[in-house]
Task: inverse folding
């Protein structure tokens, strides 16, 4: 990689900034971290990847005495790139943190996406069926040619994850270099003079995001006008997109690759895969493994990198034996994450073992401590399984209130709802008559019946990787965990896992209907068509698969090609 010179990163020790450093390093840049206000003044190119909430970002800038130096830098004419909160903090204030003053470089206020109670189409807002956070790969509508988007980037999708947005008018005339719409139009890229900022995360936007960062680093003046031929090419591209070329734009459905990770009997960390959660080979294994051995489908980092190259929109690791002992020590997933984030530039989620625990030496860790280590190692989101079930039970027991101490609340408060995924492991419980259970039942839409001819079922939450059922159904869980601050739900199915018969649409639709956050369908994918089918039937924002990808039976590219034939709503980022 040719050297790209030096870039200074403004970090204050919260959240996942390692990904940005890794992306810049992969491009050949030398990264310098701000450690004092003088480092800001001395920078020649500064990137501010604001993390956490608006209030946390401003408090950290104030506490470190960075605000005067940052204001001076922003007025200096030297290139500045803000990312996400790094964009929002340029404004006067935010609905996210009432009473906290922003940098005020722009006069407006940051608003919350709120689609509850808004009549469709009223005030230019149409939030029908839209979830919050706005999470995933969305297009940009470029206002004018810019060196940042050189190389055809105006036609690409970028990765967004945010619940708050800058209204287009707040940026002032010409302030929005690009806009995007999620129910309401908002500023996707801001520019005034040398001050530029993206609402999306270029460091998580795959090859397109890396190309944008490269443009920021290499353009002689990234805020100026591009050369005439490039300006002409961008204008033509934007005109063609507005005239209906491409897939029509908008938020794409995400395709997620999932890697269940554990140690095999030889002590090696492997990607494995169960049939209805049983990850050991049968007595007479079809694939040639040893009878009773943990199925070994590959090495975690290599498989994740392969799926990134193939076009995965997101990669999830689940430490599936985390209910044992000391999760951080048992399975060295910190090292897996750190290595993966040097090669994979899409969002990484990690789950398994995120809970309060005490290790053999008597050292206690809170769920927040465990999560913090994962974020610092390169995770963008963490997922909670068993602990979320316990938190939901406590929420109901306390009269539908949280006391602030659950893992969901503590992690969501510091890192934001978008960083907290709940991984649900439900199993179907058949009943002859809905009156036989206090739980919400349904009658399977495909006409399936139970072993004794039962016509109704409910979906029971389990803990410890499905080993223990609880007196809580999935809809109850979904309601409780989103009230506590979870920002996304991953809906597995113990019945459909590894069966390749397609997703359980009834289960997934019931969860989707209960919440306003994004939902990921999981378990049962056996063919490319299953993805489009679950999007159509349930309206979920993402679909995850494991076995078919690991065994090479269906490629991510094939899934995307099949989904794209179904039109814009099913499109995903290009591989
Ligand atoms: O309870 O917070 O420590 O988290 C434990 C995590 O480990 C949970 O997210 C739980 O789902 C996961 N887990 C535990 N045991 C297993 C197992 O398989 N024995 N894996 C397990 C869950 C289901 C999905 C799978 C999809 C798609 N596996 O992860 O990837 O079903 O598979 P398919 O496409 O092959 O059908 P905590």
Result:
């Amino acid at each position: 990689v040719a050297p790209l010179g030096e870039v200074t990163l403004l970090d204050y020790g919260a959240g996942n900034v390692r990904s940005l450093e890794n992306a810049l390093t992969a491009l050949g840049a030398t990264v310098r971290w701000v450690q004092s206000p003088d480092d800001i003044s001395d920078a020649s190119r500064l990137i501010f990847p604001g993390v956490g909430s608006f209030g946390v970002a401003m408090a950290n800038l104030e506490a470190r005495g960075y605000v005067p130096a940052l204001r001076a830098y922003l007025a200096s004419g030297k290139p500045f790139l803000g990312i996400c909160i790094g964009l929002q903090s340029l404004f006067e204030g935010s609905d996210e943190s009432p009473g906290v003053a922003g940098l005020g470089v722009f006069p407006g206020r940051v608003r919350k996406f709120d689609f509850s109670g808004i009549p469709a189409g009223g005030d230019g807002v149409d939030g029908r069926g839209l979830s919050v956070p706005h999470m995933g790969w969305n297009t940009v509508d470029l206002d004018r040619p810019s060196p940042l988007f050189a190389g055809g980037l105006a036609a690409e999708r970028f990765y967004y994850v945010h619940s708050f947005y800058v209204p287009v008018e707040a940026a002032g005339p010409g302030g929005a270099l690009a806009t995007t719409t999620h129910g309401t139009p908002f500023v996707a890229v801001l520019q005034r003079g040398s001050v530029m900022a993206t609402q999306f995360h270029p460091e998580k936007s795959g090859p397109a995001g890396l190309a944008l960062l490269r443009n920021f680093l290499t353009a002689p003046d990234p805020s100026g006008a591009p050369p005439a031929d490039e300006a002409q090419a961008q204008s033509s591209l934007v005109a063609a997109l507005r005239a209906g070329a491409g897939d029509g734009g908008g938020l794409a459905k995400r395709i997620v690759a999932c890697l269940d990770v554990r140690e095999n009997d030889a002590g090696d960390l492997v990607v494995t895969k169960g049939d209805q959660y049983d990850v050991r080979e049968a007595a007479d294994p079809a694939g040639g493994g040893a009878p009773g051995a943990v199925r070994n489908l590959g090495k975690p980092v290599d498989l994740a990198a392969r799926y990134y190259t193939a076009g995965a929109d997101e990669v999830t690791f689940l430490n599936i034996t985390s209910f044992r002992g000391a999760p951080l020590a048992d399975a060295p997933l910190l090292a897996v994450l750190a290595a993966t984030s040097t090669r994979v530039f899409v969002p990484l989620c990690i789950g398994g073992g995120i809970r309060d625990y005490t290790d053999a030496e008597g050292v206690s860790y809170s769920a927040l401590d465990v999560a913090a280590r994962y974020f610092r190692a390169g995770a963008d989101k963490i997922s909670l399984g068993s602990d979320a079930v316990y938190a939901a039970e406590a929420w109901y027991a306390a009269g539908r209130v949280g006391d602030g101490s659950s893992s969901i609340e503590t992690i969501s408060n510091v890192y934001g709802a978008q960083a907290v995924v709940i991984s649900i492991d439900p199993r179907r419980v058949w009943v002859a008559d809905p009156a036989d259970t206090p739980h919400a039942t349904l009658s399977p839409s495909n006409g399936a019946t139970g072993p004794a001819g039962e016509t109704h079922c409910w979906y029971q939450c389990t803990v410890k990787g499905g080993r223990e059922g609880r007196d809580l159904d999935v809809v109850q869980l979904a309601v409780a965990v989103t009230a506590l601050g979870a920002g996304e739900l991953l809906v597995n199915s113990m019945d459909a896992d590894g069966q390749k018969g397609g997703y359980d649409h009834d289960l997934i639709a019931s969860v989707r209907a209960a919440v306003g956050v994004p939902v990921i369908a999981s378990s049962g994918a056996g063919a490319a068509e299953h993805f489009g089918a679950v999007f159509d039937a349930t309206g979920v924002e993402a679909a995850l698969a494991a076995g078919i990808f690991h065994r090479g039976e269906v490629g991510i590219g094939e899934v995307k090609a099949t989904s794209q034939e179904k039109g814009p709503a099913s499109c995903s980022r290009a591989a």
The longest strand covers residues 254-263.
